[in-house]
């Protein structure tokens, strides 16, 4: 099939390093591995940081014009898609294009990592939420990465709209098994951008957790950079000298090399959608210590490859970390299980199997919708 692939949150071809961009590229690669031709939709970013009515009106008008241009091209001989696939439709980045184009062409409409928020369906985000919900109502299949997202999508599930789980996965890269452990202090590592919001809260929480564990032997490597670097650096200043190693922002190969040199991946993960970095750390053979927040639990096997504690329970997180710091055998056992888990279950090949199942279902659902109703004359 020829698949139109739309990413309203962030253009798939830019040089951004965020997890959503990487997941979009992984989805394209998985679809292509099935033999499909995937064509990214050339459309402007429609992410709304704030509910700006004027910008929303402008974006809506621009999208209407782009829909007309695309449909005119498809009807005029440009290779038309057999299916429309939108990644990351939600109230901050609603899909203005896909539902109308799919309906006009009579092709299946599929989304991945869509989400819905009843809280945003009224008030200042109501118009944005309405567009996202139109896409949810129009869908033939919605792939969800986390159970939390599934719970929000249940209201849109019906005979013609299916919900399918697509567990977060990572494409093979330079992932390597963890190097043999040293006889020195356990080596902790975290990888995260330094920006406002949930990331900053997680960094500040991390500093407090380590303060609780200062009597134990450990070092922490921090990989990441961003506008909150100074505030984050200050938060760790009270820890003993030599405990924190600042690496700044590194590329993926360098991150994988660093993961392989460490023993435990530690990141609170407040509000994480799921976090590809948890998968990468496990692929390198590291056990994970984190809050059971957002979609983090969807990336690990709690109790087997990771120690998860209730969100914001800093005492429990410190206790979980301490248990690994003081038990090398437990670290090794969990790390080995983590690598097996990722290499067996969270690969592009496994994701492609689920995608193939979902696309076939989407085709059936759309075909059923296009059939004339019994007793209705065919024009």
Can you tag this structure with a few keywords?
6-stranded parallel sheet, elongated, 379 residues, Rossmann fold, 41% helix, 12 helices, alpha/beta
In CATH's first tier, which class of the largest domain applies? Alpha Beta
Tell me the strand percentage band.
Answer: 5-15%
Strand and helix order: EHEHEHEHEHEEHEHEHEHEEHHH
Looking at this structure, what is the CATH superfamily of the largest domain? Glycogen Phosphorylase B
Number of helices, counting only DSSP H or I runs of 4 residues or more: 12
Major β-sheet annotation: 6 strands, parallel
- List low-pLDDT spans: none
Please, what is the average pLDDT? 94
Question: Would you spell out the secondary-structure blueprint of this structure?
Answer:
Layout (H helix, E strand, L loop, with lengths): L1 E5 L12 H15 L3 E4 L12 H23 L7 E5 L10 H8 L3 E4 L13 H13 L2 E4 L2 H7 L8 E4 L21 E5 L6 H15 L6 E5 L5 H7 L8 E5 L3 H8 L4 E3 L9 H8 L4 E5 L13 E5 L3 H12 L2 H18 L2 H23 L9
Helix pairs in contact: 1-12, 6-10, 9-11
Protein model, in words:
- This protein is 41% helix and 14% strand.
- By secondary structure, it is an alpha/beta fold.
- The protein folds into two domains: 2-169 and 348-370, 3-Layer(aba) Sandwich (Rossmann fold), CATH 3.40.50.2000; 187-345, Glycogen Phosphorylase B (Rossmann fold, 3-Layer(aba) Sandwich), CATH 3.40.50.
- The strands form two sheets. The protein has a six-stranded parallel beta sheet with strand order 2-1-3-4-5-6, with helices on both faces.
- Helix 4 (126-138) links the parallel strand 4 (109-112) and strand 5 (141-144).
- The longest helix is centred in the N-terminal third of the chain and has 23 residues, at 53-75.
- The radius of gyration is 23 Å and the shape is elongated.
- The two termini are 28 Å apart.
